[in-house]
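Journal club side-thread
Mid-discussion, someone asked how the predicted structure for our own chain would compare to the paper's figures. Pasting it here so we can look after the session.
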Amino acid sequence: MKQVLEHAEEKMKKSVHVLTEEYTAVRAGRANPAVLDKIMVDYYGAPTAINQLAAVSVAEARVLVIQPWDAGSCSAIEKALQTSELGINPQSDGKVIRLIFPQLTEERRKELVKEISKMEEGCKVAIRSIRRDAIDKLKAMKKNSEITEDDLKDAEEDMQRLTDKYCKEAEQLFAKKEKEIMEI
């Protein structure tokens, strides 16, 4: 019984962690190196992450500077940035690439809030699904006489507490990200 609860809690933690990672990749008007994490560069035939090919730094609030270690990879990085879903045209002098993030319009901010809201809801659905699976396992244990009716009730209550805790964490992450997007 305890193993079922621990396993479910571990999965819920992972769901919240995934949401956190998704939120760091959302472009909120500020320069954030995490927005480049999912962009892969075709480097000598192998898909390679930008942060493995170059030093990425924040020069100003809305400017990312990408300085490739190998000058030959500059054009490949530039091409990957242009074809990505980032929506920003890189500026390059052949040695350094600059990404200038435009100021977000009110309309775009609202779209971003809708996107992050969907991400939060997806996380909460995953958490509730984990709860349902765990409770199903517990009911099977009760049916097989591995645990008592009282144990089942206690475990269901514990499971609900865990679900509430991690759903609340997802809500707090959403509120924080929403505030960040709307204040810029």
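Post-session note: The beta strands are 40-43, 46-49, 54-60, 63-68, 91-92, 97-100.
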